[in-house]
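Hello,

Our lab assistant flagged a job as stuck in the queue for most of the afternoon. It eventually completed. Since we weren't sure the result was trustworthy after the delay, we are filing this so someone can double-check. Below is the sequence as submitted and the structure that was eventually returned. Let us know if re-running is recommended.
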Amino acid sequence: HVQLVESGGASVQPGGSLTLSCSVSGYPWSDTNSNAIAWFRQAQGREREGVAAIYSAGVATYYADSVKGRFIITRDKTKDLVYLQMNGLQPEDTGMYYCAAATPRAGLRWDRREDYDYWGQGTQVTVS
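-- returned structure --
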């Protein structure tokens, strides 16, 4: 049974930094790139969008254009944690941030919501 628990959300001023954590349990980690953990976010009144993803082998990472160069996704294999380090935060980064896990599948697309089977409850990030 896969469980994801996010933490680290807060209110910050523009230009500030935050690091979100996703505690992952029961997930079938593997050393292939056929499964992934991702961060999505949803601003009020908008669709949930992919922010960043790390494939299970921990080699490949992907980012939305809007966060490239500012956000970094990493995985701590020893603690089953996935982090999202966010720098240079702007008001448009405000939203609920969700951790999501995809089980192995062919053709996995990192930013496609439908490819993710498990979701956390979210953690709120407010930049103002």
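-- support follow-up --
The delay was a queue issue, not a problem with the job. The result is valid. The first strand starts at residue 3 and ends at 7. The mean pLDDT is 93.
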